[in-house]
Design goal:
- The structure is a single chain.
- The chain contains two helices and nine strands.
- It is an alpha+beta fold.
- It has one domain: 3-Layer(bab) Sandwich (minor pseudopilin epsh fold), CATH 3.55.40.
- The strands form two sheets. The protein has a five-stranded antiparallel beta sheet with strand order 5-4-7-8-9, covered by helices on one side. It has a four-stranded antiparallel beta sheet with strand order 3-2-1-6, covered by helices on one side.
- About 20% of the residues are buried.
């Protein structure tokens, strides 16, 4: 058996040449792909980070600008649903129920109260239902049976027969505000954008 200088036999030499030919062809096929997999340059990464930062900055400013409006709408929905719940409590128990708004609190809040009679209640007991408004939202005025109030407390009453006392709650401001109206004859709750 004849050996070459590198220690290969003729059969092994042929096999080695075939493998190296296949490997060369394989590398030529993959070379463009290997360059693609090499990674990103520092410039490309910096440009991408800059673009993402600009988009995030614009989105953050727009979100912060709209956030107070979202809170106002959310608190308006909460006040309206609280008035509906008050009406349902009154009709299901046969007693008067009311929402008492504390306009001097910071943040402003309101609590559910139960009356001691089906009409003309003389005492009101606080129930374990109390809500606070967002710090950025304020109740500008509440109109109850005693008239329009901008400070102190105001009580909006619901009766067991489904009717209610006078009730209007003005949230926000004239420029960006909502009005929640309680219709006295039917106890219907409406939310209206603007005053």
């Amino acid at each position: 058996m004849k050996f070459f200088r590198n220690g290969f036999t003729p059969e092994k030499k042929f096999h080695h040449l075939c493998l190296s030919e296949k490997t060369t062809k394989f590398r030529q096929i993959l070379k463009p792909r290997l360059n693609f997999l090499a990674g990103f340059t520092l410039i490309e990464l910096l440009i991408t980070i800059a673009i993402i930062s600009i988009i995030a900055g614009i989105g953050g400013v727009a979100f912060n600008k709209e956030l107070p409006h979202y809170k106002l709408r959310g608190d308006t929905r909460t006040v309206a649903s609280s008035l509906l719940m008050t009406r349902m409590k009154a009709t299901s128990t046969g007693l008067q129920y009311a929402i008492e708004f504390d306009l001097d609190a910071n943040p402003q809040k309101y609590v559910l109260q139960q009356g001691n009679a089906s009409s003309g209640s003389t005492s009101w007991a606080d129930q374990p239902y109390q809500r606070k408004l967002s710090v950025t939202v304020s109740i500008a005025q509440v109109t109850d049976d005693g008239g329009a109030k901008t400070s102190g407390t105001a009580r909006v009453i619901c009766n067991p027969n489904g009717s209610s006392g006078t009730g209007q709650v003005f949230l926000g401001s004239v420029a960006d505000g909502y009005k929640v109206i309680l219709t006295p004859a039917t106890g219907r709750v409406q939310t209206i954008k603007g005053w």
